[in-house]
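Much of the work behind modern protein science is quiet bookkeeping, done one molecule at a time. The fold becomes a row of whole numbers, each drawn from a learned catalogue of backbone shapes. The protein below has been through that process, and both of its lines are reproduced in full.
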Amino acid sequence: MKKLLWLARRHATEIALWSGIALGVLALLADNALVQPLQQQQHALEAAQELGGDVVRQRVAAARAGTPAQQLADFYAHFEHSPKLTELLARLNLIAKASGLELASAEYRLSSSGGEQRLQRYQVVLPVSGSYKMIRVFVARALRELPTMSLDLVQLERETIGDTTVEAQISFTFHLPR
């Protein structure tokens, strides 16, 4: 015991120096692992809230103008100017990354029905894993930034109540001109 105290007194400055370095490294690791992801989620939520109100007001004002025939023509004209499917899928992937989600795989299906329909439906089913908030931000932002896409289904599943990670199946449909 006396020897341990003697060693501690003799090397006190070295022990203090290495303890300080270890605490600094732990603080940096905690910042990278805990604080920065939360800041990214907060920025994504703030951006989603800012964009939400303006888009809805513009759509309501546009829908109220004109005759029903003109409104229908304007509706279909909106789809004529939409980006190509590959661009839409790339944007969806970027939105997922910005929301903190990774799209590892997806199921794609073209649903074309005969008749005089002027739009094709391209369904995308995405399995994702993340927090409920991240998934909610992703869905809201995707619907806001991709106006020719609709949400079909969100299925959430947790292993236990205390889990922070949620497994989700999200089904979107892109509405494309023929």
Summary: The domain at 2-177 is CATH 3.30.70.60 (Alpha-Beta Plaits).
